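Lab notes, practical 5.
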Amino acid sequence: MVRLFASYGARIGIHYHDNRWQASLLREAITRSGGEAECFQGDLLEQATRRHLVRAFLARFRGLDVLINNAGAVFGPRHFLKLDERSWDRTLALNAKAPFFLAQQVFAHMKGHRGGKIINISSIAATYGGSPQTTHYGAAKAALEAITVGMARAGAPHRILVNAIRAGFIETPFHRTMGRRGIRERIRLIPLKRAGQPLDVARAALFLASEAGDFITGEILTVAGGD
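Output from the prediction step:
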């Protein structure tokens, strides 16, 4: 997403938690090509981080047109009969609470600045509840989709367009714990018979962020190969 948006002239704020090295490489690649980017560190499970990120971005770039809520993880994956409350709370906090409160701040800014776009990255798990080991993740993404629709209705009078991308099985480190056999079996369930690539989701985000998405709000766009 960072590389694609930068190639179209976007000024980018790159949030990271602990992978400073990769974030720095991205920023350097963009600046070398004549673009503009800045890195912002923080743990989205912490209220102070959520409050700081938007203020820090605005201080650096003096404006904010698009927010993409892309951070996500499953904490403590285990069968729901053995799921502990801490894993539930942390998974809901990162996948639903954090994007809500980031969007809340961005919404307030956009309301006074001729609108903007908020794009939440959801998951196909919202439709089928995840696996028995990731039910809490499916619940969190379902909550994020409900937040998307609710904010879209509130944002329409202010030209704030809010949409979500429901990503399918995307080839990222997120799925490495499944092992090669598990990944092969999962791909067999996809009608297009391949894993999605990060670029597939990035292009959908660019579409929604561009003028092509100016008459779209409150939608959940599925990018899942027919899954």
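Observations recorded by the TA: DSSP finds eight helices and six strands in the chain. Strands lie at 12-16, 37-41, 66-69, 116-123, 160-167, 220-223.
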